[in-house]
Amino acid sequence: MTFLDFQELTSSNTFKTPAESESIEYKEASWKLPKSFWETVSSFANTAGGLIVLGIAEDKKAHEYSIIGVDNPEDIETQIFNDNNNPSCLSKPIIQNQDVTVTNFKDKKLIQVIIHAEQYNARPITAFGKAYIRTGDGDRVATAEQLKYFTVESQNEIDTHLLPASYTIDDLDPKSIKEYRDELNQKGIITVSENTNNQEFCIQLVCLEKIELVILTLII
């Protein structure tokens, strides 16, 4: 996700594309940060990430957008970072300095904010105590079933970005792997052949986890 260059998108104060979508949201914020800003932050963080542009008005009937600008971008930018670090507003701070930029279009200023998708084991991100997800071009309160799925993903996700780049199967304890294989065989969870080496066994475990997540998705 990158910031938009409105100088290239339109020569006037109106435009039709890019329209709001699963990854783009426009909001008016002439003098105050709207509460719905944080709902969109939550929904983008809990799905695939996205871009929020402040200072854009939408004409739903004409299916077009107008660049109206932000009157006091410095104050609103300060409010973004204050609320970002306020746990009663957002469950955890996720917006970094490099994610926010103030851009110019003619005599108007816009604030663009990139929201990155959170790691599965950090979801859900809540706004004012509620978790949102992005569907189509709107923010929706997550259902109990969707929150359940978030929880399952959190319990199964490994922070692979924390592992050294040189980490291999040889770094695992062979004795522990054997004990785990024996336990799985004994309980009948999966059958591990004696001819299956440790690397193949670990691949089987990853496949089993993915199947469980797919089944859970179908059930809920």
* Helix content percent band: 25-40%
Profile the largest sheet.
Answer: 4 strands, mixed
Q: Using the CA coordinates, give the radius of gyration.
A: 23 Å
Order of helices and strands: HEEHEEEHEEEEEHHH
Strand content: 15-25%
Structural class: alpha+beta
Report how far apart the termini are. 30 Å
Mean pLDDT: 85
- How many strands appear in the DSSP assignment? 10
Shape: elongated
In order across it, which strands form the biggest sheet? 2-3-7-6
Structure characterization notes:
By secondary structure, the chain is α+β, with helices and mostly antiparallel strands. Helices cover 35% and strands 20% of the residues. It has 6 helices and 10 strands, in the order αββαβββαβββββααα. The strands form 3 sheets. A 4-stranded mixed β-sheet has the order 2-3-7-6. A hairpin with a 2-residue loop joins strand 8 (126-127) and strand 9 (130-135). Helix 4 (144-156) packs antiparallel against helix 6. The radius of gyration is 23 Å and the shape is elongated. 22% of the residues are buried. The model is unreliable at 210-220 (pLDDT under 50).
